[in-house]
Write a structure and sequence with these properties.
Chain lengths: 491, 372
């Protein structure tokens, strides 16, 4: 009894109309490959490759050593296996760890028009549109930043927003002070790999008392073949500073699985406020689970200062496999952590995502709202840890995670871990799993609302709590993304 | 890691065992440090133990197992009637077969009696309910002394349309550790109602796995742990909905005081095809001391879509406003606290139909709560 697999064969009773079939077979609309030459390192990873990456970026000695140390540590580690994911073994020697578009442009005007076209197709408000949308964009194309806008406006406010390579050159003291201070190089398998070979990413520094005058945003894209991309993002908000950072991504269609292992570190000092929003729409693979991005990300925020606040909001609809737990270390007294998430898996997508809230300081508070939607053969897992340390007197957590199932072959799973060592803490967890009820559908249909519209209305309502946390332009994008992703998933 | 014990206790591959022992690794490692002799089956029961299980209400239907071995001297099955068959086979394996309604409960006692050195025992028990409605009370007791490690595997098989009410009281001194694996299979339209009470123990581990195998099978699981001193109790409940229209309702409460550690994991799986399943789990815990720890993990794994599943878990302390209310009515603080904790635990005992038994369990729980 203990070992037999629990699966019962049942005929698939879900309604299958032409609309459903068509929608289920929809092609990934952002799936195209931009044909520009890339200059990549040959596949493989060894100390030489790590040194080569560092050399190409003209990095100082300490950073090269830092990378090598991470690489040596990585060699001693094994890939994590605890997630509820079915991952084909990854051949880390088959990946090229560095690629960049040739002819590095000096400014936006010099940017390869094909590249701009790519952003155009994706609707990135880079050029003129960036100005209109009031968004500063630091676009990472493969591994090197190709354009940064609004730098001047930000500089006037004292905000540093640049690529991490630039930051290493121009603000080495800041990078050296904070890099790896939230996610140590040996933190986990993929963070160690990233620390060794990180290509580029964004660096944000908001000095004391400054409220960042605009939303900051980065669009990531994975492009050249067989290239893993390893962004490193470092965001620091000093005392009383406040910043909202947006991140969105999409990748072109291809057959090989692509590895993406990013690290994001946030540091909030006294009274600082960081809001970090993500819309992730990477190529999820086709309906048979071929191809798609492996998205293994380590994101962590450190509420170092008293009364600081870090808020994560994510909408995850893409990637073949998502392994991601944006976390908050609530070190400062009265600090606040938030996590709002919508994760959608369709076809054969798998997601194991959630958060960690580590309460260390007194009167720390955290709130978790997670909405999972599973359709097709998708497997969606919420995995979260709420840990209240001994000294976290008056700590408070509220967690709500809801799952919505669409179809007979998908799965929705919830694995919350609650560890409490302080008797003055209050921790609450609630979870529900259900499908769209026939009553809800009937009500909508009886009001003359079509089936598709009804589903998207109900799903929208299901996710509303999270969407309202997103900056407005992202909320619109996220809502649309979900609609497209779910079209016809319900008969 | 204490490999041999880990190998022995739990199920699945090494990784799953490692994960399920996540919070009790250290406690298990400490147990593995000792060498154990085979526990003495003919050890005399001290009077204190005899008193604990000699209940007037169950005389004539009592099975006593001492250190894993059936004790002729203490058992009394003169009044079990034709519907109950008690069997024994080699290797400390016992079977109880129930065919037809039994009015009064069967009382099965497992006693841990220490020897001059650390000792351990193991046993297997199978309970089959072929027809009708059955009631079973399990009682685990132990005497203070040298370490005893007991491990007991039990199987409960409920045929279609049967019913079993199981009450399990495990009250151990700090020198006794117990591993209990309970595997239950519930057939179509059958109903299993369980109430577990976990008190004391150096390490109490309860692995409780229920397969709702037939359509409309139903589980109601109630449980409470109240821990003090250095008690360590770890419950791993796995409910698997394998057929259509199955239901489970799980209510567990936990209290940890002093340096105690309480762990509860309640996992509900709804397999593909188990449509119409309805799963509910509630786990609430009170942490009474800054040196105690509570770890809870309510997990859901859902592979069907025609499903209602919900779980909730909390860890907190006694409601200050309620305490204030009681004190404003002239009730001293200590008494008020005790009232609150008692009421908190009582929720898990409310499902027991037999008022005397419910009262007895409530008293046992109260006895370990902080004194007035």
């Amino acid at each position: 009894m203990a070992t037999q697999p629990i699966e019962i064969d049942v005929p698939d009773e879900s309604v299958s109309t032409d609309v459903v079939t068509e929608a289920l077979n929809r092609r990934y609309s952002a799936g195209f490959v931009t044909d520009i030459e890339s200059e990549s390192l040959p596949p493989g990873l060894n100390e030489g490759v790590v040194r080569a990456i560092s050399a190409r970026k003209d990095e100082p000695e300490w950073l090269t050593e830092w990378r090598l140390k991470a690489y040596r540590h990585w060699l001693t580690m094994t890939p994590p296996h605890w997630a509820k994911l079915d991952i084909e073994p990854i051949d880390f020697q088959a990946i090229s760890y560095y690629s960049q578009p040739k002819n590095r442009p000096k400014s936006l005007d010099e940017v390869d028009p094909k590249l701009l076209e790519t952003y155009d197709k994706l609707g990135v408000p880079l050029h003129e549109r960036a100005r209109l949308a009031g968004v500063a964009v630091d676009a990472v194309f493969d591994s090197v930043s190709v354009g940064t806008t609004f730098r001047k406006e930000l500089a006037e406010a004292g905000v540093i927003f640049c690529s991490i390579s630039e930051a290493v050159r121009e603000h080495p003291e800041l990078v050296q002070k904070y890099l790896g201070s939230v996610v140590p190089p040996g933190d986990n398998y993929f963070a160690a790999l990233n620390s060794a070979v990180f290509s580029d990413g964004s660096f944000v520094f908001v000095p004391k008392g400054v409220r960042c005058p605009m939303e900051l945003s980065t669009y990531f894209r994975i492009n050249a073949r067989d290239t893993g991309q390893f962004e490193r993002t470092l965001l620091i908000a000093e005392e009383r500073a406040s910043v909202s950072y947006l991140e969105g991504c999409t990748a072109p269609m291809r057959d090989e699985n692509q590895l993406h292992a990013a690290v994001v570190e946030l540091v909030a000092l006294d009274d600082a406020n960081i809001k970090y929003s993500t819309v992730q729409n990477w190529y999820p693979g086709d309906e048979n689970g071929v191809g798609g991005i492996y998205n293994f990300v380590t994101k962590r925020g450190d509420c170092r200062g008293a009364r600081s606040k870090i808020s994560w909001t994510q909408v995850e609809t893409g990637s073949a496999i998502t392994w991601k737990y944006p976390s908050c270390v609530l070190r400062g007294d009265d600090s606040v952590g938030e996590f709002n998430s919508v994760a959608l898996t369709h076809h054969r997508q798998q997601a194991d995502t959630g958060t960690k809230m580590i309460h260390i300081g007194r009167n720390t508070k955290s709130k978790i709202v997670s909405k999972g939607i599973s359709a097709g053969r998708g497997q969606n897992t919420y995995r979260g840890l709420v840990k209240v340390e001994k000294g976290a007197e008056g700590a408070r957590n509220y967690t709500q995670c809801d799952s919505l199932l669409i179809g007979k072959k998908c799965g929705a799973h919830t694995f919350p871990y609650i560890e409490v060592k302080n008797p003055g803490a209050i921790v609450e967890h609630e979870a529900t799993t259900s499908k769209i009820s026939d009553d809800q559908m009937f009500y909508c249909r009886s009001r003359g609302i079509g089936e598709e519209d009804a589903v998207s209305m109900i799903v929208d309502g299901f996710c509303k709590q999270v969407f309202k946390e997103l900056p407005m332009e992202f909320a619109v994008e996220a809502k649309k993304l979900l609609e497209v992703s779910l079209e016809g998933a319900v008969g | 890691m204490s490999a041999p014990l880990l190998e022995e206790f739990g199920r699945g591959d090494a990784r799953e065992r490692e994960e399920s022992w996540r919070y009790s690794k250290t406690a298990l490692r400490a147990l593995a440090q000792q060498d154990y002799a085979v526990a003495d089956a003919r050890a005399a029961l001290p009077d204190t133990l005899l008193e604990q299980f000699d209940w007037a209400a169950t005389r004539g239907r009592r099975v006593v197992v001492v250190n894993g071995v059936f004790s002729e001297a203490h058992s009394d099955i003169s009044g079990v009637g034709a519907s109950v068959t008690v069997g024994e086979s080699a290797g400390n394996a016992y079977s109880i077969r129930i065919d037809g309604d039994i009015e009064r409960p069967m009382h099965v006692v497992y006693a841990n009696v220490p020897s001059a050195q650390s000792s351990r025992w193991q046993a297997n028990v199978e309970v089959t309910v072929v027809s009708g409605r059955a009631r079973v009370i399990e009682q685990f007791i132990g005497a203070q002394g040298e370490s005893v490690l007991g491990s007991l595997r039990r199987r409960y098989d409920l045929a279609d349309a049967t019913q079993l009410d199981l009450v399990s009281l495990c009250e151990l001194p700090e020198s006794v550790a117990m591993y209990r694996l309970v595997e239950a299979r519930v057939g179509a339209k059958a109903r299993l109602h369980t109430t577990h009470v976990l008190l004391g123990g150096r390490l109490q581990r309860l692995d409780f796995q229920v397969d709702l195998a037939g359509s409309e099978a139903r589980l109601e699981s109630r449980g409470v742990f109240a821990l003090r001193g250095r008690d360590h109790a770890d419950t791993q409940l796995d409910v698997r909905h394998l057929a259509r229209d199955t239901a489970c309702d799980v209510v567990w409460r936990g209290v940890a005081d002093a340096r105690a550690r309480g762990i509860f994991r309640g996992a509900i799986t709804v397999a593909q095809g188990a449509d119409g399943s309805d799963a509910k789990l509630s786990n609430k815990n009170l942490l009474l001391s800054s040196s105690a720890e509570i770890d809870t993990q309510p997990a859901l794994e859902i592979y069907a879509d025609e499903v209602k599943a919900a779980h909730g878990a909390t860890v907190g302390q006694i409601d200050e406003r309620a305490l204030f209310y009681l004190r404003s009515r002239g009730i001293p603080l200590a008494v008020a606290r005790r009232m609150m904790v008692t009421a908190f635990c009582a929720e898990a005992l409310a499902g027991i139909g037999d008022a005397d038994l419910r009262e007895l369990l409530a008293q046992r729980v109260q006895a370990v709560l902080p004194a007035e």
